[in-house]
Amino acid sequence: MTYTFVTLFPNLIEGYFKDSILKRAIDKDILEINYLNPRDYSKNKHFKVDDTAIGGGAGMVMNPQPLFDALDDLKSRNENIHIVFLTPVAKPFVQNDAKRLANKTHIAFVSGRYEGIDERVIEKYADEVFSIGDYILTGGELASLVICDAVSRNIDGVLGNAQSLEVESFETPLLEAPSFSKPKIYEGLCVPSEYLKGNHSKIRSLKLALSEAKTKFFRPEQLIKHNAEQYLL
Ligand code: ADE
């Protein structure tokens, strides 16, 4: 998978790939990361990339010219590129999107800064537009990293242990059961005794009960939305 981050601030993104799982995936040639800065395409003599909004409104909007030229260049060099824009005005990104996008070969993430991107750029170039949640960030860079991370762990070879993808929250409507590590007792706090006894069918039942309780408490709408009776005890 190749990712191209189209951003005015590549430095905000680079650090994330310098350690841990995604760095290992880059070292193994499973992932390749590129950057494209719209400022490098600006025809303005001061390399300006934004202007005030036509029709009024606070803040600056990213101009079409640098982004049109950057994205035309990118598309001319990469036939199968899938272009994703990040903005709070979009459908929310969910786990199914992460799994679906993992099948692409090249994704470009286009991040807006300031008050956003001239809508004509999105109209012309977006294959998809995502929000990562109902809050406003200072730009799309963090959102693009969130999506890139969630997609990458669904690509073969990125996670060490393929099993860890199997029973995760959002793979079913139920949130994942709590996990515990060693020691069995830490500062007087015990791991549930059923987890320790080694009876796998009893552990499964307890985990299901705990999943159900967590889901009812934190995300009750998940149970309603997915008609989750079938998953419950
Ligand atoms: N840019 C600013 N806020 C955002 C959000 N919530 N999701 C995606 N892109 C954004």
What count of structural domains? Answer: 2
Round the mean pLDDT to the nearest integer and report it.
93
Number of strands: 9
Structural class: alpha/beta
Shape: elongated
Q: Give the amount of beta strand, in percent.
A: 15-25%
Give every kind of bound small molecule, once each.
Answer: adenine
Q: For the record, what is the CATH homologous superfamily label of the largest domain? A: SPOUT methyltransferase, trefoil knot domain
Taking all Cα atoms into account, the compactness measure Rg is 22 Å
What's the CATH topology name of the largest domain? Answer: Alpha/beta knot
Largest sheet: 5 strands, parallel
Verbal overview:
The protein has 233 residues and is an alpha/beta fold. The protein has 2 domains: 2-152, SPOUT methyltransferase, trefoil knot domain (Alpha/beta knot); 169-232, Trp Operon Repressor, Chain A. Helices cover 35% and strands 18% of the residues. It has 9 helices and 9 strands. The strands form 3 sheets. It has a 5-stranded parallel beta sheet with strand order 2-1-6-5-7, sandwiched between helices. Strands 3-4 form a two-stranded antiparallel sheet. α4 links the parallel β5 and β6 (106-111). The longest helix is centred in the C-terminal third of the chain and has 19 residues, at 200-218. It is elongated and about 70 Å long. The chain starts with a strand and ends in an 8-residue tail after the last helix. The site of adenine (ADE) has 11 residues, from β5.
